[in-house]
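Here is the promised in-class demo. Please do not try to memorize the tokens; focus on the logic of going from shape to residues.
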């Protein structure tokens, strides 16, 4: 892919976890003509395979830059993703907010993206949250994204001086199959992505956590071959 001109008006910060949704979001931002500055967060999650995947996805999709910030949310725990004493659920997706919810994670990550966007002179942040095939996380809802955008207009120098900032959540109303189909159209190599909550050091998925189940169902519904590497 050819990288678009990197002028301030065309720059965007893209939150990139290394998973299926964020990879698709990056592809959408690139297709819209943005020079994408990707931001990943090492927040003390169970594995680093997704960060390695983020680097591979960023390179494959021609991002202008990829940075990783270390911010250890595991000092608080409170989630199966940041506390080894809390088991990752493997019995199927249940109603309600699961123990894989990381308190305030999206608020923290969007705040970091907002800070970088101001430094870059960018008015656009992309995030791959989804309110359809999601696991009950309150910070993946449209109301939350709208509220954060309103807050950003009050909290930043750029917005006070008239540069309105936009939080783009292009997947928020799409089902997993629709996300996969859109990404396939844009040339996303899903073999590079890691979505599993408890992937092994090689990035191989467990096949039974909520994220794996939603991913498997998405590929099946999209009638797209699932390139996920499984540990079993």
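The designed amino acids, position by position:
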């Amino acid at each position: 892919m050819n990288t678009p001109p990197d002028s301030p008006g065309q720059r965007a910060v893209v939150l990139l976890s290394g998973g299926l949704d964020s990879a698709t979001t990056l592809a959408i931002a690139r297709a819209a003509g943005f020079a994408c500055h990707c931001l990943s967060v090492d927040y003390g999650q169970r594995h680093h395979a997704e960060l390695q995947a983020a680097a591979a996805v960023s390179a494959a999709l021609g991002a202008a830059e990829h940075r990783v910030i270390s911010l250890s949310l595991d000092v608080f725990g409170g989630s199966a993703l940041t506390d080894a004493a809390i088991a990752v659920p493997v019995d199927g997706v249940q109603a309600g907010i699961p123990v894989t919810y990381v308190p305030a994670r999206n608020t923290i990550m969007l705040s970091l993206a907002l800070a970088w966007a101001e430094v870059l002179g960018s008015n656009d942040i992309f995030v791959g949250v989804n309110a359809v095939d999601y696991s009950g996380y309150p910070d993946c809802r449209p109301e939350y994204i709208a509220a954060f955008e309103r807050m950003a207009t009050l909290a930043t120098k750029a917005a006070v001086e008239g540069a309105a900032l936009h939080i783009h959540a292009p997947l928020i109303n799409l089902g997993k199959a629709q996300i996969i189909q859109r990404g396939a159209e844009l040339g996303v190599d899903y073999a590079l992505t890691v979505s599993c909550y408890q992937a092994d050091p090689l990035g191989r998925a467990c096949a039974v956590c909520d994220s794996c189940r939603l991913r498997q169902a998405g590929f099946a519904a999209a009638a797209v071959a699932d390139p996920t590497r499984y540990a079993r």
